[in-house]
Every structure is written in structure tokens, then in C-alpha cells.
Records
---
Amino acid sequence: MEYRSGCPISNILDLVGDKWSLLIIRDLFSNKSTFKEFMGSPEKIATNILSDRLKSLSEKGIIDFAYAHNNKKTKYYYLTDIGINLYPIIYEMSMWSKNNLNVEFNTIANDWFEENKSLSGEKVISSSIDDYKANRKDLFLKFEV
């Protein structure tokens, strides 16, 4: 991959700096893993954009996929270790929004904030990463990865 500059912020934006890529990564952390599940997200991504972003994230090594044993048309997407390492960024963006925007968040976000309000940021991040890795391991056991 070629980057626009030597700036670390610019470099990460080259990888995931569009709205849809970050939302796909968010959805993967929320245990969505199929094209159909991504299509069910409230932002209503167009199918062609979703296909493009999944391909791009895969080419960049942020996500990968496995086929279902019983249906080779169905891909189950998952975050690679590089993708999992984006969780602290997703967490901080969520907290920044909660603390700085005067917005009514959806039920999923409100439930997540409520579940984690008594925990430190470090605890939420490590717990969420551990949970995702356990779910990914279960996926690996179901499919040929």
C-alpha cells in the first residue's frame, strides 16, 4: 500500500478513512459477519459500496472471510488482528461523540453506554477485544479459515 504522506493520521485515513469502512468495522465488533447482516445496519449502505469496502478492507489486511461449509456463496467476514487493533479508535470515537455531541443516540448505542458506564475505558477496550477474539475463534471452528 502506498501512503500519501509520512503523517500517521493521514496513513490510517488512507486505510479506513471513509464513513463506510469504519461502520463495517463497527458492525464486525457487534458480531455481524455476513453481507446480509451488514445490509441490515441502520445507515443503509448501498450494495455496490458495501461490496467495494469489503473488498478494500480485505485487500488491506483489515478483514478476511471464510465460506460456509454448506453454502460456498455465503462469506463470513471477520477482523484480522490488525483490524482488531482498531477497537481503541472505535471506542474513543464513540466516547467523543457521547461527550461532545448533542444527539439522541440509537438504542444499541445507549445500551452499550449503559452497560459500560461503570467501567474504565481500558477495561471496556480489553473486554471487548477479548470477546471479539472469542467469537472469531468460534467462527474459525465452524469454517475453514
---
Amino acid sequence: MKIYIACDHRGVEIKKFLKEKLQKEYEIIESNLPNNANDDYPDFAFDICNLMNKNEDKAILICGTGIGISIAANKVKGIRCGRVLNVVDAKLAREHNDCNAIALSASLTNDQALEIVKAFLQTNTSNLEKHQRRVKKIISYEEGTYNGS
């Protein structure tokens, strides 16, 4: 599993910290887009989410609130990105929603962000039928085969 990471200008410090900590255990791939005071979060979400293998890799995205970058990421086919605020959100994003990306707020401390990311990366998807069924509905809608049930 590779970890893809990107941020807009507000998340640069957290991104650097996470990369430093995570590269001891994971292959980290950063966006090649440059950060500057006028950059736009959708560019980073689209760049990273189009590079990654949606079935094997994970993405960490950071913007001011985590909301905008999560919306942009979810426009990329095969991405299920949850904006997470804490460890519980991170675990449930994996367990219940099989998220392959998370979006964080640049307002988190470095340690909070690392704790959230570790929880996300170490949590498996639930095997419960209800969670599997719901994720399959999302995938079928994205593929144009959803039939409303």
C-alpha cells in the first residue's frame, strides 16, 4: 500500500510532519503541484486521487477545514473520501465506508493529525453485510448501474 498525500497552502506544515513520520512505515507519494499562497485545494485533490490505485492505496488530503478538499476528492471516480475530525471518525470511515482517502483540517495539531491518520491506516473495512451493501450501492451509483434498491 502506498500513501498519497497533498494539501493546499494551509496544510503544508501538517503534510511535512505526516510525511516525516509515515515514511518510516509506508511509501509516501506527494503531489508534484507547488504550494503557494494562491493555490486551490481542488487541484491537489484531483492530482493525488487520479494518481493512486483506488483499490490498494490510501490518500491523505489537507485544506483549511478538510471540507473543500473532500468534496473535490469525491468527484474522482473510485474515491470515497471522508472528512475526519478525530480518531473515531477515522476508524468509522474505514470500517463502515471503506474510505480510501481522508481529508483533514489544517487546524489540527501535528500530533492530532498523526493519531487520526494512524487510526485510519490501521483500521480494516468491516465484513458486516450492511456495510458491504451500502458501499456497493455507492459504487454502483458511480458506475451508473444503481437501481434504487
---
Amino acid sequence: MNKAHIREIFLSIQGEGPHVGEEQLFVRFCGCNLKCAYCDTDFERSKAKEYTPDQLIKEVNSFGENLVISLTGGEPLVSVDFLKNFLPLAKQNGHTIYLETNATLPEYLKEIINYTDIISADIKLPSATGQEISFETAAHFFDIAKSKELFAKIVFNKKLTQEEINHSVTIAKNSNCEIILQPEMSGDKFSVNTEFCEHVFKTFKKGYRRVRLIPQVHKFLDIR
């Protein structure tokens, strides 16, 4: 039977990106194909509950009507076979689908993109993640995702390089999407100072007009 491990389901305020401050229902999937150095999310499968698509839509509907469902993780697209069954049910019930993704699984995105509305796609920087992640794969992902409301989220720290900035700007330009710069944080503290954040913002702006600097607001509000 098609099931997914869901770590938690909760109604809260979106703390990242251009939809910051909006109410969303967060559905946190277990499993991820990456191990980013800055990841602070608990998506441990042993603490999760298994759901079938029918069970999950019933749980989602218990929170209300016409919800914005934030599929988060982990990496939701790891559970693409489950999503292919769940997302049609969610759309039939009038919900909006907000996909938070690391943008490394473009072929999986193809399978469910028709059921998504908003895509928050990371551009993963090797300097921040501690991993060598292909900018070519990200570019392919963004090319597929640009048919939807799309923005790029970029977590950065003091190791950010000009080459990474150039690659990121090229990807955003080609998909005509906004870049959201997000300083890496440890708890509620920035890993970089205000002056460096301003420098990074201005450097990105030299290459591309559609850039915003938005930290993780939910951490300052002390909410999930």
C-alpha cells in the first residue's frame, strides 16, 4: 500500500520567503537525499507516523477548508509516488499546494508539477551545505518549475563565493524568478553580521534586480 512517513502536521505562520507571515498548514515529510551542514530540522523517520493518501487528506481537512498546504521536510519529492496519489485529493478538496524543495530532483518534479501552485526551490551552495551539488541540476529543475509561481531561496554564510553568486543569478534570470537571500542561522542567531548581509545583498543586486533579503522570521517569533 502507498504510504508516507510524516513527521508532523501543524498549522502555523510561514517564516520564509515572499509569503512570510501567511498562515499555512505544514506537512513535514521524512527522508532527504541531501545532508546539508546547516540543516536543523527533525525529520527522523522513527518519530514519524505512516499515512495513506486517504488518511492524510482526512487529517488535512480536519484543519479547515481552502488551506495552503506547505509540503516540507526533509525533501517531499523523495515521496513522489505518494504525492502522485495525495496531491489530486488535496486539489479536489480546494487546497493550495506550496512545495518546499531542495531542487535536486527535477524528474520527480515533472511527475507532480501539475498539482502544485507555489514552488520554493533552494539553490544549494556548496559553501553553505558542505556538499558538491550540481548547478546544472538546479538549472534544469528551475526550468521545469518556472511554469508555476516560483522563487529561489539561497541560504548563505561567510564562505559564499562570487562563482556561486554568478551561477545563482544565471539560474534565476533564466527562470525569471525572485531570489530570496537567507542568512544561515544557528538557533535565533545569524552566522554572519549585518555588514556582510548588506554586502551580499548588494552584490546579488548588481547582477539581478529581483532580490530580497529575508531571514527566518519564525525563529525570531519563536514559532515552528
---
Amino acid sequence: MKPRSLSLEADVGFQIAPMIDVVFVILVFFMALAAQIRIEHSLQTTLPGVAVAGSPTPLVDEQLIQIDATGEVRLNDEALDATDSVHLPGLRATMLRLKESADAAKSTVVVTVIGHPDSAYGRTIEVLNVLAAAGIRQVTFTTEEES
């Protein structure tokens, strides 16, 4: 007898069993993953808004007001009002803005008035009137040393 040769060309057809196994594994994976996903509205988040300080800010910003011998007023080396200005509108507007921003940040405003020895006493009083109108209460004084 003649030995029979095996033919490897047999048509097996479409195998459904491995496809069902793969689908079940994917289904189990997504079911396990879905149990860990949080719904967005259940997260306790708030959107950012206007920041208001809860306690006073410990940083103190000192402002320097200089009165020179001619009566010119400078705030932090920036000329604001001329010698003939009695009501000091530039200084007044700047001090009001500074006080409002300090109140919003709950910080204190400290002003040091540096007067020239030859400046008029009335000019210092005008500067103090502006500071009082702005509501600034922490004021210190010093004088320029003559060179």
C-alpha cells in the first residue's frame, strides 16, 4: 500500500470562538475602567474669581515724599506737583489710589515725609492735609542732611 500524504490545504473556515473570547476580554476591560471614572459634576471644583485677602498682608510698602527747598513735591523721586500748587492734585490722586489698593490688599501704607531744612513749613502742612484726606495715618518725618 501506498502511504497517504496529508494535505495541509484543508479549508478550516471562519473561527468564531476566538473572536468571542477577544470581545469578552475587551468588554470586561471597559467595564472595569468605567467603574473608576468619576463624573465631572461630582468633583468639588470652583472656578477662580476675584481674590480677596483674608488677613492683612505683612509686607509694608513705604512711600517717600520729598519736599525740596523750592517747595517741589516728589513721590519716590518722581515729581508730582510744582511749587505753586497749593492743593497738590497730583499727590492727592496718587495717594487716594495707593490707599484704595492697600485697603483691597489689606495692607498698611507707611509714608515718610522728607523735608529739606530750607523748605517752607506750610508746604509740609499741605502734604499732611493730602495724606489726611487720603486716610493715611502712618506718617513719619525726617529731614535731608545738608551736604
